[in-house]
Amino acid sequence: MGIEKSPWRADFPLLAANPEIAFLDSAATAQRPVCVLDAQRRFYETMNANPLRGLYSLSVEATAAIAAVRAQVADLIGAPDARDVVFTRNTSESLNLVAKSFSPCVLTPGDEVAITIMEHHSNLIPWQEACRAAGARLVYLYPKKDGTLADAEIAEKIGPRTRIVSAAHVSNVMGCELPIRHLADAAHAVGAVMVVDAAQSVPHLRVDVNELGADFLAFSGHKALGPMGVGVLWGKRELLEQMPPMLTGGEMIDSVREQDATWAPVPEKFEAGTQDAAGIYATGAALAYLTKAVGIDAVAEREAALVSYAWERLEGLGFVELIGPADPARHHGVISFNVRGVHPHDVASILDASGVCIRAGHHCAQPLLAWLGVENLACCRASLAFYNEKSDVDRLVDGLSQVWGIFNGSD
């Protein structure tokens, strides 16, 4: 498949209506195909009722629709039981749920939680707080500069005091895939559990909780073509049943008395209040489009070709400093870089004037950028998706040449 034109680009109204935009920020949030927008509207037009709270037909239909998406998510990630899929607002809330509700079940003073220095703040700050509350220690695994985690580092940092290991499947800055199965095996060997932040992997490659050895896995719908405001937490049933709810109130109870209450079974125990039912329904449409209309293998193949082309072109710019693995095949849609001597915010602003949309800043990964020695704790990030085309990359490269010329004069 060539990268000149994307056969799916016309399915995305924002991109179709604005051909002058080169959208290169899909790692932050993806564009939505028309089928997802239609699904969200269809929910409100045809089954607008509160799921689980009515015996009339509209509510029953809404309940069945949400159950179908739960089963769809389970199938997507290889989960054996759809009832182990919990809907949240986003990956951050899912990881906070594990940190706040599961950590107290296993962490005691002197215990350890192991994460990598490559983590997004959403998979870092919750563990700082959990360790602080329990008197436990947060231990960091440090990769080589190309993002590779050495076996010796894993063996040294995951030990008898480790109770939880949490890591991103794909780094949102380095773009590389972490050895989750190796980390999970090391965790399980010492009786610890493995938590996986799959926010940057579910939209780009096949994910199977059993193959990964995950005990918990989290991702966001909005990075996988769905609406904002819907997240997923999957966990092994025996672990979910140990956990108290993080939020309490309506729907998450079985019975309530004046002085106490009994929680509903999993997953309702963790889904207090009215969920974003229309968003969940539309997320189902997004996942169907991603896996059936496009196909996750086609996504991976096309994005690999786009990244390879972008890496080659950026490497040819002597003033661009690339971050992460030197092999573009290890970058799952993400290329981070800086323009020598120019602040990333200036780069992004100038590119925006030409309709090129990239991310600039610390990417919620300040400890990683500090460890890498990145100036100003900031860098540029171009993140590609299957709806991007060769011209998007060319416009990025042309825009960067313009940035260099503005600050350094034309040759």
Helices and strands in order:
Elements: H1 13-17, E1 22-23, H2 34-46, H3 57-77, E2 85-88, H4 91-106, E3 112-116, H5 125-134, E4 137-141, H6 151-157, E5 162-168, H7 180-189, E6 193-197, H8 209-212, E7 216-220, E8 231-235, H9 237-242, E9 253-256, E10 261-263, H10 277-294, H11 296-315, E11 320-323, E12 334-339, H12 344-353, E13 356-357, E14 359-361, H13 366-372, E15 379-383, H14 390-408
Parallel strand pairs: 1-13, 3-4, 3-5, 5-6, 6-7
Antiparallel strand pairs: 2-8, 7-8, 9-10, 11-12, 12-15, 14-15
Helix pairs in contact: 2-10, 3-10, 4-5, 10-11, 11-14, 12-14
Overall geometry = globular
Distance between the termini: 37 Å
Strand fraction: 15-25%
Per CATH, which architecture of the largest domain?
A: 3-Layer(aba) Sandwich
Number of domains: 2
The SSE order reads HEHHEHEHEHEHEHEEHEEHHEEHEEHEH
Structure annotation, total helices = 14
Describe the sheet with the most strands: 7 strands, mixed
